[in-house]
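Weekly structure sync, notes
Attendees: PL (lead), two postdocs, one rotation student
Agenda item 3: pending single-chain targets
PL asked that the sequence for the first pending target be pasted directly into the notes so everyone works from the same version. It is reproduced below exactly as submitted, 219 residues in total.
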Amino acid sequence: MASASLQFFAFILALFGVFGDIAATLLPNWKVNADVGSNIITAITQMQGLWMDCTWYSTGMFSCTLKYSILSLPIYIQAARSTMVLSCILSAFGICITTVGMKCTRLGGDTDSKNNACFAGGICFILAGIFGLVPTCWYTREIISNFLDQTIPESSKHEPGGAVYTGFISAGFLLIAGVIFCSSCFKRQQGAWIYPPKQHHFPSTEQESNAGYSLKDYV
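Predicted structure, written out during the meeting:
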């Protein structure tokens, strides 16, 4: 019962991780630059994401521009695009697989099949967490290095946006969920190896029955 509750808790964490991973991939505020200027009325907030750049004016106007050219983007943005999409795909596969393999569901067949499915789903969550953590760390490193560079003007410097923090938290949820699923299945398999099921043999009874049968044939 405790194992089923732990798997259900890990599944909830994985759901939050999947939704946060998708949101972080699509949000345009990976890095933010606030330019107040001489007047608060003309304040402009510039946001840059993986797929579009957006500008928000204090007057209420909001405009976005899609990044159509892939080759013109920096290498860290290209890597972040591919790894974040791969993270979303792996986490979605993990949700489908663990739904079948969880102990509280009636899908997946026997116990061994469900354990294998849970273990495979946990591996998917761990890989998704790694693929989601690498681009966020790399992107944050680029933002910090540009911010500390004295040769770059202040108007071109940015700070990490909400999408970066969402990516960090989602990657952590996926990693924790994957570890819980893998460890729960490993404990059950280890217990089966240490304490194998006892097999009852009755050699004397079988020999007596065979002996009796052969004597009757000879008579």
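Discussion points:
- The radius of gyration is 28 Å.
- Helices lie at 2-26, 75-101, 111-148, 162-194, 203-218.
Action: rotation student to compare against the earlier draft before next sync.
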